[in-house]
Amino acid sequence: NYGKPDQDDLKEVHVDTMEHYLQDGQFGIGSMEPKVRACIDYVRASRNPAVITSLDNLHNYLKHGDGTTIIP
User: pTM for the whole thing?
Assistant: First the structure.
């Protein structure tokens, strides 16, 4: 429910769960969908985690983990 009043914060999510959310249409096609798809592809190919955050939020991510980490 990204961008909706009932959206949930996704802190650490397994790649299979993220792929399910993607297939379910949970991310905006022109905004989060391409980022999520790229991260899923990266995690599947590398078996390493991927992080979604913004440059403006980088300090908060490094200090507090604010962002979404997709794990293998």
Answer: 0.84
